[in-house]
Amino acid sequence: MKFNQPLAYKLRPKTLDEVIGQVDLVGPNGFLRKSIETKTMFSIIFFGPPGCGKTTIAEAYANTMGVKYIKLNAVTSNKKDLEMAIEEAKLFSEAFIIMDEVHRLNKDKQDILLPYIEDGSIYLLGMTTANPYISINKAIRSRVHLLEVKHLKEEEIYQGLIRGLHSSDGINEAIKIEDDALKYIARCAGGDMRFALNYLEVLAMHSKKEYSLKDVEDIIKVPNYSMDKDEDEHYDNVSALQKSIRGSDVDAALYYLARLCVSNDLESIARRLIVTAYEDIGLANPAAVDRVHNAIATAKDVGFPEAIIPLGFAVCDLALSPKSKTAALSVEDAYNYAKEHPLDVLDYLRLTRVNAKEEDSYPYDRPDLWEKIQYLPNQIKNMSFYKLSENSMSKYQMALDENYKRLKGIKRTTDLASLKKKK
Q: Binning pLDDT at 50, 70 and 90, where does residue 225 land?
């Protein structure tokens, strides 16, 4: 059986009603459903793993809204492409620009796009597999709604396979597959609908017309880990990876890394290693934190299977490194306090000061005074958020702690005029 287009593309839902799963987005109380019902358009960034339906949902949302859309890719589309898309969109009273790989949008393109998003001339629907809170520029992030698109459940993948098998746009009942075999494919897919439909297409291209479970197992060669993987097991392995690194058990850390590599889930591995580096190694070995970024960038450049080499390098480095949670615990403490106590910034620290005397202004030209100035609000001027390390093995962190103790011994002041008179 020959396909002019991939099966997954041919079966792509055209409207929200055709979307399988993602109830939080397209269900009766879902964000997109409410947007349709109220005829209110939004700029949105959809984030989630590959094959979960981000682009499909974006297009279905635009179609269901009955609005014109233009598709771009942040990597391959240049400034001229973006400018032409904007001009085309402006010909309509309302229009979407749908942009894949939106986290790769460079500053020049952002500068072009932002004013039109700001005034509602166009609406952006962006898609990314990366964590938007880390990878999306704040200027874009502050102007859009962030919506997570999750891995599909096994039963939802099964539902998509049934549709593909019987739809006139799909296999159109050209072959028969036992129910157990379809469920096997759904398990193998690991939440990726495109992956599952690609399997179905492979079966349709074989000469057989009927497939048992054994037939499918013989044709589809996948690792046992992928077959047995469910969402809980996946996150258990992610959790075990971080805990093994934190506990300096490099052998266990390598094992759990390998489990995750078998599933080719580079994004989850990258996010966890970066978080682990900052949270558990942190100030004890900042150079190792930087090396993790380089290793992950290399892994993404080369892809699997070679990606396991730089990832393994990073895991060994982190697991055998001295550890410090000082930075993570300190900022968490500050964050929790700031949520409950949004205190005013001291006048001389503000970006724009009104009716302020020059002698009371911040002394940009007096670095000798900077350590003597009070920066915390008066209500908490003596509060400490930084956590001194306990029994640190890192000379670098020991030096930071000693400097912190020295700085805490300095009496800070808000009387900048008097401070400036001292030499």
A: very low
